[in-house]
């Protein structure tokens, strides 16, 4: 249904959906790239802090204190950090600050759908650059397209392929002079970050999150790192008081209890190895080797597989009209349950 007040561009947009709203406790959730474990240390620290929290007062408007803690953690200055209500708010703020009507934004695809949506919201033009047939980054094509473009948005490791891109590939695009947005939501699972590139390039914004490896998706906390000039520009358009007191405390505690993240990443890598190896052994399934906490796999009858898994109370990510599905790397028990169910389904299909 359309209201008479809608902007014309809404005709081409759909609400974002990953079926993440499904919260059945009996469902095995392998669709949203969530960590399967809770950070109990953070929750207990938050529990102890709640009664003394000055909830009747606004937080400090520039989020100065938590920006400093993040900066100390990653080895940058506070002026290089901007925090958001999840990485999604950072993406939106980038759109508000840097995308003018008819600006062209390069988006290697398939990737996170929000990049295109935000570009359209601010009346920019998404330029879709298909990934290579092996899902590698088409660097030469992107570089060629930069001649008429303002921004490139690149996710590494990429969602949904799980493939990481090298610093050299990113440098090739940065060297063209356009603004490069590097989304590193899953970088902890790859063991590599492009943060060091910020010492060489002032046309780079790197987005990070506490939702994935830190297991804090429910608190919606993310940030970006960039030159002081770019952060200042973004600060002009980000909403005031955008991060609440609880989220700030959660970030502080997540950094303090970093060992939980490191242990979780180690376990996810072990489970990822099992999951990838098991998928390779199943006839008719072609998994893509991943550096993230999920695996993309090609198959026939993807809709049937998705629906049959759902009947067995397992939810994975379905992509309409595509020959692939994405499964999150869960606990070992969840991975075993998924593989067992998939084998059973394919003997029937």
TrEMBL record:
Source superkingdom: Archaea
Pfam families on file: Aminotran_1_2
Pathway stated in the Swiss-Prot or TrEMBL entry: Amino-acid biosynthesis; L-histidine biosynthesis; L-histidine from 5-phospho-alpha-D-ribose 1-diphosphate: step 7/9
Chain ranges of the Aminotransferase class I/classII large domain: 30-341
Keywords linked to the UniProt accession: Amino-acid biosynthesis, Aminotransferase, Histidine biosynthesis, Pyridoxal phosphate, Transferase
GO MF term list: histidinol-phosphate transaminase activity; pyridoxal phosphate binding
Names of required cofactors: pyridoxal 5'-phosphate
N6-(pyridoxal phosphate)lysine: modified positions: 212
Enzyme class, broadest EC rank: transferase
GO terms for biological process, alphabetical: L-histidine biosynthetic process
Similarity field: Belongs to the class-II pyridoxal-phosphate-dependent aminotransferase family. Histidinol-phosphate aminotransferase subfamily.
Listed name of the protein: Histidinol-phosphate aminotransferase
């Amino acid at each position: 249904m359309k209201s008479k007040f809608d902007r014309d561009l809404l005709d081409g947009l759909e609400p974002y959906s990953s079926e993440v709203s499904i919260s059945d406790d009996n469902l095995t959730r392998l669709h949203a790239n969530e960590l399967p474990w809770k950070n109990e240390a953070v929750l207990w620290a938050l529990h102890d802090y709640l009664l003394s929290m000055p909830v009747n007062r606004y937080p400090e408007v520039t989020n100065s204190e938590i920006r400093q803690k993040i900066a100390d953690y990653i080895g940058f200055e506070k002026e290089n950090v901007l925090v958001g209500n999840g990485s999604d708010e950072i993406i939106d703020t980038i759109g508000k600050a840097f995308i003018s009507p008819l600006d062209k934004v390069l988006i290697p695809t398939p990737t996170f759908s929000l990049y295109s949506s935000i570009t359209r919201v601010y009346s920019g033009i998404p330029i879709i650059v298909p990934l290579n047939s092996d899902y590698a980054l088409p660097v030469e094509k992107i570089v060629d397209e930069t001649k008429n473009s303002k921004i490139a948005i690149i996710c590494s490791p990429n969602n949904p392929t799980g493939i990481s891109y090298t610093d050299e590939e990113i440098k090739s695009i940065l060297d063209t002079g356009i603004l490069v947005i590097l989304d590193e939501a899953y970088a902890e699972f790859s063991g590599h970050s492009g943060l060091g590139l910020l010492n060489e390039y002032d046309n780079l914004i790197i987005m990070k999150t506490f939702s994935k490896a830190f297991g804090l998706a429910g608190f919606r906390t993310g940030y970006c790192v960039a030159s002081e000039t770019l952060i200042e520009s973004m600060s002009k358009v980000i909403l005031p008081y955008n991060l609440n007191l609880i989220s700030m405390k959660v970030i502080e505690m997540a950094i303090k209890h970093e060992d939980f993240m490191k242990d979780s990443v180690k376990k996810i890598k072990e489970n990822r190895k099992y999951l990838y190896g098991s998928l390779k052994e199943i006839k008719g399934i072609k998994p893509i080797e991943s550096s993230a906490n999920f695996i993309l796999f090609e198959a026939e009858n993807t809709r049937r597989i998705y629906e049959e898994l759902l009947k067995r109370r397992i939810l994975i990510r379905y992509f309409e009209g595509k020959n692939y599905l994405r499964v999150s790397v869960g606990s070992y028990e969840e991975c075993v349950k998924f593989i067992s169910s998939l084998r059973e389904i394919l003997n029937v299909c």
